[in-house]
């Protein structure tokens, strides 16, 4: 059939039957959960559908057992069987040849779903699935596509309309963490007596979180690491997710790094640009309070540290999503980033 982006698939899933073999791949857990739910809803029907569903762990699943399951005619539910192999990366690597044979001659009585993190398109198995099955890319989409999807999704999922500026602000405050965004949308829908507006988002989502994040950046930029870590404590004690905290910090720090590059490029070309203009060129909203605050913070951070922000943020992001995902380790990663921002360094300030 095809390989589709998750958002494109979700938009047309209601009229799309799931073929005999389907794959959900990528690292965006919330999107993947929605896609798997659509697979299940399409394949299984009726009150007894649960009897036709089998779940397997990719580390322990045996191909013969999975294939025999798919070949069994359901006793209940009146439809096909559905076998889902979760975390199937190892399963695919160990049994690639058997899976290629199955894709070429699948059982008509069932649907096999593989849930994996990576799905290289140049493998024989991936090409075979693209030809006769369905692969859905569940990686995080670009911001523009995410925003375009967020507006109709909010109406369909939560029963309220969200204004485009409110969706932009929500994404800016929470970061590109779809599970967290959906939680905030549930909260906003319960409080809205009309469309969700930027004012409502700022009041319910942006108040404490945004102020505390700004204060944390202020203290770090001023070299006051202990005070910045105190603000981090407040966020963590309030239940904020470390990945979401990094996303909030990162959205600002990436703009600082981009603004620094804009300034350096202009200087190389013998042109001048104001710090306000550079920040706006880097994507900072042209709101006087935000621009003035950002100018102050970037001046305090200095050019040398600002030039290293991309590398620091990438290192922190990989750590939080890898070996430092536990709460204690995640806290250390964020503290290390704060310490780097707060460590005095000789700098030629952006101007």
Keywords:
single chain, 6 strands, alpha/beta, six-stranded parallel sheet, 17 helices
Please bin the fraction of helical residues: 55-70%
User: Treating each run of at least 4 consecutive H or I residues as one helix, how many helices?
Assistant: 17
Strand order of the largest sheet: 1-6-2-5-4-3
Q: What's the main sheet like? A: 6 strands, parallel
- Could you list the spans in which at least 5 consecutive residues all have pLDDT below 50? none
User: In sequence order, what are the helices and strands, one letter per element?
Assistant: EHEHEHEHHEHEHHHHHHHHHHH
Radius of gyration: 24 Å
Overall geometry comes to elongated
Strand fraction equals 5-15%
The number of distinct β-strands equals: 6
Distance between the termini: 55 Å
Class per helix and strand makeup: alpha/beta
Mean pLDDT over the full residue set: 86
Describe this protein's structure:
This protein is α/β, with parallel strands linked by helices and about 350 residues long. About 60% of the residues lie in helices and about 10% in strands. It has 17 helices and six strands. A six-stranded parallel sheet has the order 1-6-2-5-4-3, with helices on both faces. α3 (about 65-70) links the parallel β3 and β4 (about 80-85). α8 packs parallel to α10 and α9 (about 180-190) packs across α10 (about 200-220). It is elongated. The protein starts with a strand and ends in a 9-residue tail after the last helix.
